[in-house]
Amino acid sequence: MKPKISLITLGVHDLQRAIRFYREGLGLPEHETDSEEVAFFKMEGAWLSLFPREALSRDIGIADDAPSGFSGITLAHNVASQAAVDQVLEQAVAAGAELIKPGEEVFWGGYSGYFRDPEGHYWEVAYNPFMDLT
Fold first, then answer.
1. Residue 66 domain-assigned?
2. SS (H, E, C) the chain
3. Are residues 78 and 121 in the same domain?
4. Cα 98 from Cα 45, distance rounded (Å)
5. pLDDT tens-digit profile of 67-122?
6. Domain carrying residue 104
7. Which has the closest alpha carbon to 91: 43, 22, 44, 40?
8. Radius of gyration of the chain (CA)
9. What is the CATH number of the domain that holds 111?
């Protein structure tokens, strides 16, 4: 197996709201499809997919009975500066996200903060001066 993630799928309760958040709020470029049941956004290095949560659980073959709290998964968006962290967090909040942790210097020497999208997915926005992840 190659060490690569090519697609991240978020199971969402309200597909149209999620599409608006990622397309209009965060400005991600949506890939046109013939389906109204899924959305794809081309990102650098991977694709982001939005799919109705109930349909995703059926596709996996599991019950959609997970608690509504933290799923144990976060997504990360790395930027080139501390100022860029704050800008992305502000953009996400303006688009309807909840600010969970404002940008701050962190124990590992970088700068990061967290937001939760309207569907409850947690995103870290980080500046890492030790690795070029941008």
1. no
2. CCCCCCEEEEEECCHHHHHHHHHHHCCCCEECCCCCCCEEEECCCCEEEEEEHHHHHHHHCCCCCCCCCCCCCEEEEEECCHHHHHHHHHHHHHCCCEEEEEEEECCCCCEEEEEECCCCCEEEEEECCCCCCC
3. yes
4. 26
5. 656 677 889 999 999 999 999 999 999 999 999 999 999 988 999 999 989 998 99
6. 74-127
7. 22
8. 15
9. 3.10.180.10
Place of tokens 């940008």: 103
What's the distance, Cα to Cα, between the start and end of the chain in Å?
24
Does residue 50 share a domain with residue 18? yes
Please tell me the total count of domains within the chain: 2
CA distance 91 to 69: 24
Please check whether residues 54 and 91 belong to one and the same domain. no
Tokens of 124: 């870290």
Tell if the pTM clears 0.70, that is, is over it: yes
